[in-house]
Amino acid sequence: MHGRVKISLTINGERREADVWEGESLLFALRERLGLPGSKNACEQGECGSCSVILDGELVCACLVLAAQADGHEVVTVEGPGFEHVQQAFVEAGAVQCGFCTPGLVVATAALLKQTPDPNEDEIREALSGNLCRCTGYAKIFDAVRLAAERA
Amino acid sequence: MSASPKTVLGWIGESVRRADGTPKTTGEFAYASDLQAAGMLWGHTLRAPHAHARVRGIDLSAALTMPGVHAVLTHEDVPGRKTYGLEFHDQPVLAIDRVRYFGEPVAVVAAEHPEQARRAAERIVVDYEPLPPIADPERATESEPLHPARETYETGHYLDDPRPNVVRSMRVVHGDPDARGDVVVEGTYEIGTQDQAFLGPESGLAVPDGEGGVDIYVATQWLHVDREQVAPCLALPEEQVRIHLAGVGGAFGGREDLSIQIHAALLALHTSRPVKMVYNRQESFTGHVHRHPARIHAQHHATRDGRLVCVKMQILLDGGAYASSSTAVTANATSFACGPYAVPNAHIETTCVFTNNPPCGAMRGFGAVQTCFAAEAQMDKLARALELDPIELRLLNALAPGDTLPTGQRIDGSLPVAEVIRRCAALPEPAPEELPRPAIRLPGGAGNTTRGEGVRRGTGFAVGFKNIAYSEGFDDSCAARVRLFADGSAEVHCAAAEVGQGVTNVILQVARTELETEDVRLAPGTTAAVGSAGSSSASRMTWMAAGAVRDACRAALAERESRGGGEVDVERVYRHRPTAPLDPETGQVGDLPAHVAFACAAMKVVAEVDVDLGLTRIVWIGTAQDVGKAINPQAVEGQIEGGTAQGIGLALMEEIQTRDGVITNASFTDYLIPTALDVPPIVSELVEDPEPDAPYGVKGVGEPPTVVSTAAVVAALRDATGRELSRVPVRPDDIVGLT
Fold first, then answer.
1. Burial, B436: exposed, middle or buried (Cβ in 10 Å; 0-12, 13-18, 19+)?
2. Distance separating alpha carbons of residues B227 and B216, to the nearest angstrom
3. Tens-digit pLDDT profile for residues B160-215
């Protein structure tokens, strides 16, 4: 396709390069070109949070960032380091059903706990309100966040 | 059956961690949209922009010359049967001469990049002659038939209805339908179109095998029924179509019908390359069936002391453009119309019609959600008219084993209606919260729209029930295969679709319990290695898989015993007890029951309403559910919490909007589902009353919370506002102006 660009970025601590079409999102590049399908493609318009990643320390929806914009920047995805205690808490609390929202919620939870290590229920609800889950009704996700906070 | 001694970890009754939990949290779990293959192309579907139009011609020439394009296919390229469907093959694989709904597939494209495929699809020129759409289901039976050739359908045991555009009509006449009570209440209720809105979009990968056959990796609810529909359209014998379960990102009924299966396979066989298809969210909203919107008129007669005398109901379901599973939804809406109450006399008439609205089919609750909303509103109305406590009224009329349903079926298994009502009613409600409080704990939430002025609190109660497994004579079965190895380990094959509900753990827990070993693996689900499991739907999979795996494990142990050791490999098919159709004229059972078993739930909801702005906040929910036997209590709670959230959605926000059949809100920006701020704490009581016929006494648990929660939420809003609120979703306009 026309309009191809080469990008170079740090993903999960590793230097990576990709040859992308200029219209591709960071989400597409991660999933289809860089072998990192953990970030999910549920709405591709920033409504559901399933593609949440950390870009230069900020929680973002990878579907709303162009791959070319991420050139030279630092991205952490659910496949990256630093999420283990959150992942373990999600499994133990029964916060996973179909799991499609889970990677985004794991990343969003880690971002919350970094900023607010001991969040109350209102803070948890507000912080995760950008991550849709259709299976769980959220109750066990809140349990998982509290469990991860206790253990951190 | 008495429980086995607890000899192994992860046996029946334990809250076992999900086998797929860790890979789902790390991103390693492969969903259908994550699949890759060498040389893979991307497929894209061109969909109709009209709800109803004649297709006069299709010009592919411009699309074929677009960069990266390998194939552009229409109905002419479907080598076998041109139509498919779950119950009737009435839906074209690709439109032939007419489109009947907005978003109906017309052509498919394969290209090297998904954007190339989308752009090529835009260059396909379709000559449409728009036709007036049937958008109002009330007028469907007076309109030109959408399926003129429908008389060729084998409608078997259905009531003969000569009107055009009737998918199925049904009548239940029980006792004396003209019996009158001392008190009569009446109401008309309306339920909007709900979408399953599973998060993982329809996706899959078709890989040609080089010998004319194809492997399809897809997110689905029933591998074998997919194959049954796919193979004839591809003009292939079933052995040459192998369907494999790819990771499923939720289903809720929306994956019972085919999505990408035939389209991707056609493109793959045509190009001799693997072809991947992934719907985007907009396409997902148009690309699957929805919950039937309904209009229900109900009249309830009772004695002065509160005993139900007679229930009359007319139910209109909009089936949309194609049949899908509408006939079974019709049967369920009719069978459970009165709710879990003893009703000596009844007259229920249901009509499900074809329209040019989005096609409807299976969604969690399957016809019982709509009628529960109407029936429970009627019970509350009756309680008010009789000046009785609504919970007392429900207890007074609660169905119990030995009672008879309006279909004449006697309840011969478990159905603890009074118990779930009592246990739910006993759950303590939280005390009203003080003011001032953080905005997030008020209606309007972080929008900071009130400091508490204009906020009223209400409490609602509802009870609901539905059937477990397939009904009306369907030959419902599940196969499982167990291999025992010399090292003591075991491998289980079962094609039950893990859609997120946790059937993987059910299978492993049953196998560990029966084989008394922790060393059990579950092989990937595929049509190539084991017989049909039936569908992950109708709250049936836990029961059916537990039965099949139990039987296969016991047979495997017996065979090893008789051979004196060594490796064994056995497959067993489990069936629940037989059912039979209802009488088409009266809707009454004959010698056999129409439904296998039932499950019920009661729910209490506390809500706050800002009557100045029409905004709501659900404060708390308590529920007691009849679960038979909880194989994995944590997973059962998860089903209850998630199922309740979907009912909150239908009560407050979820509705597919259409204008002349065209969907106008196909995105998560415009079709809202409950977020972390919308679902309150949910307290669930698991009522374990074993089902005598079921393996280990289990019942399915997925649907009852969805059946009952919409009714319970709206009951709380009625209590807070005093308004009738006869339509869901309840809109802010329905609540404002109460000063």
1. exposed
2. 9
3. 899 999 999 999 999 999 999 999 999 999 999 999 999 999 999 999 999 999 99
Q: What does the DSSP assignment read for B480-536?
A: EEEEE-TTS-EEEE--B--SSS-HHHHHHHHHHHHHT-S-EEEPPPBTTTS-----S
Identity of the residue in A44, A94, A134 whose CB atom sits nearest the CB atom of B673: A134
Residues of chain B by 3-state class (helix, strand, coil), percent to 5: 25, 25, 45
State the complex-level ipTM: 0.98
Predicted model pTM: 0.97
Same-domain status, B180 and B315: yes
Amino acid sitting at position A22: E
- Cβ pairs A/B, distance under 8 A: 186
Q: Do B25 and A129 touch (CB under 8 A)?
A: no
Domain boundary among B543, B575, B607: B575
Cβ-based contacts of A20 with chain B (< 8 Å): none
**Amino acid at position B225, single letter:** V
Question: What domains, with CATH codes, occur in chain A?
Answer: 4-76 (3.10.20.30), 84-151 (1.10.150.120)
Find out whether B182 and B302 touch, Cβ atoms under 8 Å: yes
Q: Is there a contact between B702 and B250 (Cβ–Cβ < 8 Å)?
A: no
Question: Does one domain contain both B364 and B419?
Answer: no
Q: Is there a single domain that holds both residue B692 and residue B608?
A: yes
- Taking an 8 Å cut-off on Cβ atoms, the answer to whether B676 and A122 are in contact is no
The stretches of chain A forming alpha helices (DSSP H) are 26-28, 84-93, 102-115, 121-127, 139-151
Q: Say what angle helices B704-721 and B368-386 make with each other, to 10 degrees.
A: 40
Its domain, for residue B521, covers 21-30+477-575
Amino acid at residue number B680? P
Shortest alpha-carbon distance between residue A72 and chain B (Å): 24
Among residues 33-52 of chain A, which lie with CB inside 8 Å of chain B? 36-45, 47-48, 50
